Amino acid sequence: MNINATLFVQALSFAALIWFSVRFVWPMITDAMDERTKRIADGLAAAEAGKQSLERSAKQADEAIAQARGRVTEILAQAEKRASQMIEEAKASAKVEGDRLVAGAKAEIEQEVARARETLRTQVAALAVAGAEQILKREVDAKAHADLSAAVQKQL
Questions:
Q1: What SS3 state is found at 2?
Q2: 24 part of a folded domain
Q3: 16 in the Ramachandran plot: left (φ > 0), alpha (ψ -120 to 50) or beta?
Q4: Does any domain span residue 153?
Q5: Number of other CB atoms surrounding residue 131 within 10 Å
Q6: Stretch (H or E) spanning 72
Q7: Within a domain: residue 126?
C-alpha cells in the first residue's frame, strides 16, 4: 500500500469535512434535537397536567352531580311535604265548610219545623174553635158529637 498525495488529500478533505460538520452542521442538528426533546417533554408534561386536570374536573363533576341529586331529593321531599300539608289544609277547610253547611241546613230545617209546628198549631186551634162552634150550635147529642169528632179527626 502506497501512501501518496491523493490519500493524504483525501484524509485532509475528510478531516475538513468532519471539522466543518462539527463546527457548523452538528450544532444545528443538536439544537434541533434539543428543541424537539424539549417540545416532546413539554407536550408530555402538558398531557400529564391535562390528565390531572381532567381527573380533577371529573371528580368535581361527580361531586356536583352528587350535590345536585341530594338537592333534588331534598326539593322532592319538601314538595311532597308541602303537598301533604296542602291536602290536609284542604281537607280541614272542606270539613269546616261542610260542618258550616250542615249546621246551616240543620238550622234551616229547625226553622222550617218550627214554622210548620206553628202553622199546625194555628190550624188545630182554628179547627178546635170551629169544632167547638159547631158543637155548641147543635144539640148536645152523642151521635152528633161522634160525627163531629170524626170530621175534626179527618181534617187533622
A1: coil
A2: yes
A3: alpha
A4: no
A5: 16
A6: helix 26-137
A7: no
Q: Which residues, at least 6 apart from 128, have a Cβ–Cβ distance to it below 8 Å?
A: 152
Tell me, yes or no, whether 141 lies in a domain.
no
CA angle 64, 67, 71 (to 5 degrees): 135
Query: Under 8 Å CB-to-CB from 155, ≥6 apart: which residues?
Result: 127
The predicted-structure confidence for 12-68, as pLDDT tens digits, reads as follows 999 999 999 999 999 999 999 999 999 999 999 999 999 999 999 999 999 999 999
DSSP-derived secondary structure letter, 138: S
Closest by CA position to 25, among listed 16, 38, 13: 16
Q: Which residue type is seen at 44?
A: L
- pLDDT at residue 73, as a whole number: 93
Instruction: Give the predicted TM-score (pTM) of the model.
Output: 0.43
